[in-house]
Amino acid sequence: MEKEEKIVVETQNSEDETIIIEETDDENDDNEFLKSLEEIDNEEKGNEPNDDEEAKAEALRIKNKNAEEARKRRESEAKAKAEAKAKEEEANKAKEESQVEDEELKEITPQQQVKDLITKYPNLDLGELDKNENFQEYLQGKWVKGGKSITEIYEAYLGYEARLTKQDKVEVEKQYQKKSTPSLKGSSGGTGGTTKVEDVYTKEELESLSVKMPYMNPKQYASIEEKYERSIKYHRKNNK
Fold it and tell me: 3-class DSSP state for residue 147?
């Protein structure tokens, strides 16, 4: 503890007497008091939040919040895109499968297509149809692999010519019907008649024709159809 300093003051009273007054130096006490106040003030200031730190903390919170929202938004967009892509792929797959089925149906050999046409229109004269220039022109570029069948083309042509000539479709169809149906039975014409060897193809010829037939046009097929069918029946019967 610091030693207190005393101050001696001499003064005179009204009677000219000298009076000595001793005073204690309180300056140190004042300094100590002020120092205590400063320390308290500093402590309070130290406990007060810093404005810059609060601003930084708030900015960090906002940044983190925005980052989280952006992350969720990206995840949502990615999920939506994935779902849309999956739906698109599923639709494309279904479309491709449908196209494959259509192609398989359309890839029936020309030979089989002509047979289907004759089966549906047994009185159709293929030779007459093949000689018709309008039909041949209409047919150009249509009877191709993967395209419409010859039956579809023929039916479309009937409708086309009917509109062009302003006739009924049935009347147009009659123009291409056979005038008479030839017999396929052989020279005797009866069910028990015999077939001459010269009226049928040999087995080797049949094999050669089976290779060529898919590439024949209707006229070529019509020219060999009767003999071809007769030959098939003949060889089946004689091979038993």
Answer: coil
Pair 218, 126: CB distance under 8 Å:
yes
Does this model's pTM top 0.90? no
Q: Are 115 and 149 in contact (CB under 8 A)?
A: no
- In whole angstroms, give the CA distance from residue 140 to residue 217: 12
- The pLDDT of residue 187 is 40
Instruction: Give SS3 for 43.
Output: helix
195 DSSP 8-state letter: -
What are the residues whose beta carbons fall under 8 Å from the beta carbon of 13, sequence distance 6 or more?
Answer: 19
Two tokens at 171?
């009347």
Instruction: Give the span between the Cα atoms of 157 and 151, in whole angstroms.
Output: 10
The reported pLDDT for the residue numbered 152 is 92
